[in-house]
Records
---
Amino acid sequence: MSLDPRDALQSLTSALEEHLAAASTRRGDEDPSVEAAYLGIIDAFEVYEEVLYNAYNEVTPLVVYEEDDELEDDGANQSGDIDDEDLDPIDD
């Protein structure tokens, strides 16, 4: 992939803004525009992460989870929220 990391970051930022716009005008629980924007964030993030790694051998501290991953996560309670005691402190 030959994208500049700044271009990939701009695409990710745009995807996040599109998701915010879709969420703020949601028309029901399964609004297709929100779903499309949600998937757009995932796609843009994956491109950014790959371009960042290729350019600088660096990654972000972020992870994209699939719905199945969320259900299997031992650190999530019934609502899917992560409890504070389940978080490991970051060592500097």
Note: DSSP finds three helices and no strands in the chain.
---
Amino acid sequence: MIRPTFDDEEEKPLDPGVEKVRKKLVRFVAINLGLLFVALMAVVAAIVYKTRSEAPAVAELPHSDIPVAAGAVLEGEIALPAGARIVSQSLSGSRLSLGLEMPGGSRAIYLYDLAERRIVGRFTITAQ
């Protein structure tokens, strides 16, 4: 379809005052876009710098003081009071901490050394 042309559609030169405002607006937009681009590049550069400067730490295998030969299984027996119930346990190096609940309702902590295969500490927990 052919579009009819009208005399009103022809571009007329802008008024000098309006042209001056338009030029200022174009300059303002160009400066702001430039600043935005520089700020964005600074953020990207900072992110790249942070990710490259922080090398991931290599996790070391935990070292154990427990004397066990390769392929062997450590076996043993820990003597606890009759009726005691193990509530919690924690292992640190060659030390095993056992949280016990005694038959009377009291609590105690037993510290067992796996390397020496003996109890090295008994701690009763009492309320004050």
Note: The CA atoms of residues 19 and 73 lie 90 Å apart.
---
Amino acid sequence: MKTFPSLLIFFFGILAVQAQNHSHTGAQPLDYPDIEGYKTLKTDLHQHSVFSDGNVWPTIRVQEALRENLDAISLTEHLEYQPHKEDIPHPDRNRSFELVKAMEEAAAHDLLIVHGSEITRSEPVGHSNAIFITDANPLLQDKPEDAFAAAKKQNAFVFWNHTAWHRQSPKGTPILSDFQKARIKNGELHGIEVINTVDYSAEALTLALEQNLTIMGTSDIHGLIDWDYTEKGNHRPITLVFAKEKSSESLREALFAGRTVAVYNDLLVGKEEFLKPLLKASIEIVTAEYIEDTQVLKVELTNISSSDLLFENQMEYTFYSKSPVFEIPAGATETLQIKTLEKKSSITVKLKALGCFTAPKVQPVVEWEVPVN
């Protein structure tokens, strides 16, 4: 039996080994495939630290992002709301950005740090993030329209936050006010969160499609990612941005162009022109061959994304020994046995993605052309 001092030595020995083997790839690194013509960037562009109403030092956000294999983050501190100012009385609203931008670790791992802030007002203005700004301080204005004008002057990308939040909208649905309409008309509002923390708003997706706003998904994290998401078996909500390359300039261009898909676990939301190619690239066909002496085609599919994907058969052919509704977990391989009735040299695998939306209640159907061995 180990003595107490021996147990302490044993315990700290384990910690030392873990420290030596320290890796920024955590238990749930996020991976999604590129689509044709674009690089898929994994981003979380709505986060907070102690420099507004968050509970952690800004550098923690970089460490979390590196563990989860993100490509870009933004710390969007509230401009008008600083509940920790008695303890951290810093008048410069750029301070959290400066702290993370200076981190050698972020630069070494090519993590893009996007300068941002959150314009925080009561209804009908609500909360909006301005990112790709150059200086947060001029956005601190008495009149909200002046804050948006200041963001536009800095060529910022601005998106409307948590539109269905019950404190902003008691009915739990977004209200497009005259203020937002004016901002869209003036080119001062460009995106909208359809996923914020654990909430998906189909009504916000409707507004995104009607007003041609970029579809966004964010964690809006205030505490620890591990505490709020990972330990509960979830990964943080993110926005997948389809950029021409991994750079701040290309990321900004893609956001203004609306090339995004919002993701939270197995929920994927985006315009059809981007969501369908992403789903198609997420499934790799491993093999396709007939079971000996049968007309039953065995097709193996591997999900190379970090989202569990739920599908429903949309082919004219039925399955052998499987429900027409089935899941392919992230990183897993699933085998379909398709009763083609006669042997084919190729087949079109046609599946509806049940956990994915291109519009409220509209789920995309994805096709794969599969040659038979």
Note: Residues 4-20 form the longest helix (17 residues).
